[in-house]
Amino acid sequence: MSAPMDPEGAIEVEAVGITMRFGEFTALDAVSARIRPGSFHALLGENGAGKSTLVKCLMGFYRATSGGVLVDGREARMASPANAQRLGLGMVYQHFTLVPSLTVAENLVISRRDAPARIDWNAEIAALEAFMATTPFRVPLTRRVDRLAAGEKQKVEILKQLYLGSRFMVLDEPTSVLTPAEADEVLGHVRALTQAGRLTVLMITHKFREVRAFADDVTVLRRGQVTGTGRVADLSSDDMAQMMMGARPDTTPPARRGTPKGVVLSLTDVRAGDRSGHGEVAIDALNVRAGEIVGVAGISGNGQVELMEILTGQRQLRAGRMDVAGAPYRATRAEARARHVRYLPEEPLRNACAPRMSVAENLAFRVFDAGGDGDADGTGEGARKRRFWLDRRGMMARAETLIEGFDIRTRSARAPIRDLSGGNVQRAALARELTGKVDLLVVSNPCFGLDFAAVRAIRERIMEARNSGTAVLLISEDLDEILDLADRLVVLSEGRVIHETPAAGADPKALGRYMAGQAA
Ligand SMILES: Nc1ncnc2c1ncn2[C@@H]1O[C@H](COP(=O)(O)OP(=O)(O)OP(=O)(O)O)[C@@H](O)[C@H]1O
């Protein structure tokens, strides 16, 4: 096996005056940032500020329009990601890239460029054990990746980069699918490596808590420009927020008005299979009333995906019933339209948009309703839909109104929606789903990966929907979000509702214990 860790240790990476243009749009405007060797550097910025673009320029995914990258003070040609890897630059993403059906050891060995055609597994595992002992990470090498918890998977992703010889690592929102305890463990280990001088880290994050707890330095981007940089210890969270947004953040939670009315959604004695095919989702009773937000709390993988699939008609019930406004509901597209049920799934770019179509078209049509069933304007009238298609000017005008009303940052309504940053795709999807009459709104992790301003905007919109009488089911892995927004919450554990409580006054520690499957 080739020596995985380079003995030279952490390297310095510097962006020098990087400008990146996409057509006439300037995503990065002469951005410079020095990531000191052995430092843990946070990269902050609102959605669309240019963080991913900067990182892609550093890692050789994009060729910058102008400017350059220095590695240990020497100009480096970042012509491709392979090139960056040869120089010791690696990247860990928000979502996992491991092959789920292979073991940890298999994933590590096949990631190597020089992986032999015939592999002596005993020797490889012994070498991997020895390698792992030089790092703070401990993972079961012979376990299949799909049997690992999220925190362990993220450890393997980082370990893989170390194994490939990375001495500079970009972490792109690495903790978004981890519990706070897992996040602290993973980032604590990463920090130990930087402190030992083995690794330099650049972490994209929206979580100030993590910046404060783990980062030495921070660089803040706003609309493609550096608005601040410095030692974290010298800056308050307010300072950093101000650099990000150009104003002090408003942290008051959205105002709740009115009291819940009659039941809109009810699940009774529902039974369905789970994704693994071995377990079961079993919900005896779950109700959401008009003008009420019910939060579904739980650690990811405890039935949230299956619950969403049941509600959207993608998972059949083995038993039990689902009612909307007192009548049985099977969640077909036609029913959803007629009963004014709307969904905001996770990862809307993938699950609720046509990425190559324009922002305006995506605002006008619910693409998962495609196939002649599209609901043009939220009223569900086919004739109006046809008229809508013909009325491009009307569509553009309506898009402009939604773009302004929901503060969607796009260079134009005609731009393909896939060119928008994550937060702006989310706003666009919510803008579309909240247009017209909505009796039931089902949302899943609506603020995943979003910055403050976007989080605030999206939460306000959800609260407004509640205040105007919509029944909202909020499935979220973010307990704080549920405590801020929900009237009532349930905890989902291993496919079952194991606890229910009003949100006001609920004790997060006790809820954490329920989420972990322990009785409080
Ligand atoms: N391939 C592209 N073509 C056109 N515009 C793009 C492209 N990639 C990014 N942009 C634009 O560049 C800007 C910066 O996007 P980027 O993805 O770097 O932001 P970000 O700070 O990473 O945001 P987020 O926190 O939402 O991930 C955005 O306005 C985006 O619409």
UniProtKB/TrEMBL annotation:
SMART domains with a match to the protein in the record: AAA (SM00382)
Molecular function GO labels: ATP binding; ATP hydrolysis activity
One protein family per Pfam: ABC_tran
InterPro entries named among the record's database cross-references: AAA+_ATPase, ABC_carbohydrate_import_ATPase, ABC_transporter-like_ATP-bd, ABC_transporter-like_CS, P-loop_NTPase
UniProt KW keywords: ATP-binding, Nucleotide-binding
Gene3D superfamilies to which the protein is assigned, alphabetical: P-loop containing nucleotide triphosphate hydrolases (3.40.50.300)
Domain ABC transporter: 13-248, 265-519
Domain of life of the native organism: Bacteria
Key word ATP-binding present: yes
Ribosomal protein keyword on record: no
PANTHER family named among the record's database cross-references: CARBOHYDRATE TRANSPORT ATP-BINDING PROTEIN MG119-RELATED (PTHR43790), GUANOSINE IMPORT ATP-BINDING PROTEIN NUPO (PTHR43790:SF4)
Protein's name in the database: ABC transporter ATP-binding protein
